[in-house]
From TrEMBL:
Originating species: Streptomyces fuscichromogenes
Family the UniProt entry places it in: Belongs to the binding-protein-dependent transport system permease family.
TM region positions: 63-84, 128-156, 168-198, 242-260, 296-317
Protein's membrane topology: Multi-pass membrane protein
GO BP term (any one): transmembrane transport
Xref: Pfam families: BPD_transp_1, OppC_N
Residues in ABC transmembrane type-1 domain copies: 124-314
Keywords (A to Z) from UniProt: Cell membrane, Membrane, Transmembrane, Transmembrane helix, Transport
Name used for this protein in its record: Peptide ABC transporter permease
Amino acid sequence: MPEQPFEPDRVIAGTGAGGAMDLATSEAQTLERTPGGPLGTGPAARPRSLWSDAWRDLRRNPVFVISALVILFLVVISLWPSLIASGSPLQCNLAKAQEGSQPGAPFGYDGQGCNVYTRTVYGARTSVTVGVCATLGVALLGSVLGGLAGFFGGFWDSVLSRITDVFFAIPVVLGGLVLLSVVTSNTVWPVIGFMVLLGWPQISRIARGSVITAKQNDYVQAARALGASDSRILLRHIAPNAVAPVIVVATIALGTYIALEATLSYLGVGLKPPSVSWGIDISAASPYIRNAPHALLWPSGALALTVLAFIMLGDAVRDALDPKLR
């Protein structure tokens, strides 16, 4: 009888221990040859981190995609407003005051004869600059102070808690009216400094609570038992796991800072002419709302859309970074 050729892919179930061993060997070889490895996970598959899971969820979230595209557009026109707007926002013609839409001025003219479209486009630069710089300053200062207080605790934690209580008792708009009324600079830096001064306590509270929660985990105790220094534990083990709530709050607060800048400029204590700001344009167009409503609606709409985009972005980031919401 001719000998049958040996086929490694065919499982020949034998009897006894030898048959079971052949079956197990064949299954192991089949798994090794299967693309993606056992259960399609891949031979080199690794468990995804919080950030990779968050990024995967964000890419599939239409709210994040839409808000990110709007913010990207705002950033582009803030850096290069001449791409979509010609002329200077300071060039005005009183002969065209309060006129409606026409070629070269799709949004019409305001009470001073300035092109509303051009001023609306250039106003995005001020709002984005104030929002981003204020958020970075608040997040950096609040995270450092709150993180150190939550990590070391004791006397400094108590002192920081009482200081934050004092700042929380100061009304933001009233504080801006008092502090910025004595500033004569027309730049954005006094406004940014004021926002950082009154905004860091909120981030500090968030960072403090997040660090206190993270330092109680087992991996932190293990690192301390192995002799890791406080700086290494704080930077390598606690900070990466405690920064997510800070990012969420800071992203949402960015839109709030943009609205606050417009409010302060509207009240006359923020940016002042000849600076170009949505708050300044809204304030200047308010007396002409009946005769030229377009001069008020377009900068107001741009402000509302920008704030909404950042708030939507913050909500999407919160949903992606919070495991409880998965």
